[in-house]
Amino acid sequence: MELNRRTVIAGAAAAGIAATTLGTGTAQAASGGKKPVKELFGKLADGTKVYRWSLENGGTRLKVLNWGGVVQGLEIPDRRGHYANVSLGFDNIEDYVAKTPYFGALIGRYGNRIAKGQFTLDGKTYQLSVNDGVNSLHGGTQGFDKHIWDVEPFTKGSDVGLVLHYTSIDGEMGYPGTLKAKVTYTLTKHGDWRIDYEATTDKATVVNLTSHVYWNLAGEGSGTIEDHELSIAAGRYTPTDTGLIPTGELAKVAGTPFDFRKTKTVGRDIRDGHVQQVQAKGYDHNWVLDKGITAKPEHVATLRDPRSGRTLKIATDQPGLQFYSGNFLDGTLTGTGGKTYRQGDALCLETQHFPDSPNHANFPSTVLRPGQTYRTTTVHTFGC
Ligand code: BGC
């Protein structure tokens, strides 16, 4: 079933669902988005203020921190108009700083892993910050997710959104070149959440930006996502070694638990005992999207919670999708709604270039040179 948001709202209104059930966003949705609202969320240890921006449009409510561009909450209605926050997070900045596994964050300068934190570009070898055993993960110890971004709100036509800027200086986390990153979060009148990434550099470098939302379409803290249905338009994936670094092979998904070309539940084959699953404790792999790199975002994955009817469709121009089944959530983190998060209580679908691309000549290049502009877009479409 694929009803769009306007149908749901109209249906809810026809069914006489009270305004309080749907919240104030419903009335706003018809006439365009609400102006983003800023409030104090907390303070860093050095006194720096962390703000939270609240946006609403087309029935989607988005809460974003200026720390790491973190999506602190994302609320969408189910088929009866009941809202739930479908993104894992914390209700305070201290937990984000101390222990977040990248909940909702913007990831850079290089999303995913780089083997031994090393790569060679134009004959020079760079040593990056290493934070995942011997490897570098999500930009190193102080990736883009752990910095304050400049945030400017906007309303443009029927869109509302935020423009986030972060400048990563030459040598930060070991990466060459001062990289100016600009990320635009837009909520459209249909309630879609669009992310436009841009970056420029003053020296040749590598870039791979992504967003690390942990999805649970039944609501964060509501239990496992193993019953969520998932499809991924990819006939191949990149198998990894025990450190989750791609071996370089583009293996066929056919006949393996990695085949999501036809919709199946996340849990159906997750215990198959495939060596790739055993070493990752579930799914934690990059799918090689059949469409490849495209000029415009194209649909690549659909996630659906059969209980609530909520759906998420992802469109991207990127060549890869990391599907991570929340394997390292272990019941030690207490989330926004006061519940602990256990293994498989959420999943991530990170649109990206392949992990460790700088060390694989057969993977699409992630090199950015002075004068070029890195540009990529991912669109999240919600329905029920
Ligand atoms: C990676 C996981 C990692 C997680 C950190 C994901 O993007 O694929 O291996 O544990 O991020 O939260």
UniProtKB/TrEMBL annotation:
<dbReference type="InterPro" id="IPR047215">
    <property type="entry name" value="Galactose_mutarotase-like"/>
</dbReference>
<dbReference type="Pfam" id="PF01263">
    <property type="entry name" value="Aldose_epim"/>
</dbReference>
<comment type="pathway">
    <text>Carbohydrate metabolism; hexose metabolism.</text>
</comment>
<protein>
    <recommendedName>
        <fullName>Aldose 1-epimerase</fullName>
        <ecNumber>5.1.3.3</ecNumber>
    </recommendedName>
</protein>
<dbReference type="InterPro" id="IPR014718">
    <property type="entry name" value="GH-type_carb-bd"/>
</dbReference>
<keyword id="KW-0119">Carbohydrate metabolism</keyword>
<dbReference type="InterPro" id="IPR011013">
    <property type="entry name" value="Gal_mutarotase_sf_dom"/>
</dbReference>
<dbReference type="InterPro" id="IPR006311">
    <property type="entry name" value="TAT_signal"/>
</dbReference>
<comment type="similarity">
    <text>Belongs to the aldose epimerase family.</text>
</comment>
<dbReference type="InterPro" id="IPR015443">
    <property type="entry name" value="Aldose_1-epimerase"/>
</dbReference>
<dbReference type="InterPro" id="IPR008183">
    <property type="entry name" value="Aldose_1/G6P_1-epimerase"/>
</dbReference>
<keyword id="KW-0413">Isomerase</keyword>
